[in-house]
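User:
Note these tokens:
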Amino acid sequence: MAKKVLVVYHSQGGNTEAAARVVAEGVQSVEGVEPVLKRASDADADDLRPGEEE
């Protein structure tokens, strides 16, 4: 089961979103780690809870 890294961002002009995407690409380059990219307006407390491990 892959570990997940949540990358939450708020962007009005697009620069922060672009930076968040670069961070997510870096996360994805690590074996066994999956990025989850979300706008701050789409993230909620459930995103911060650990998932169930198999």
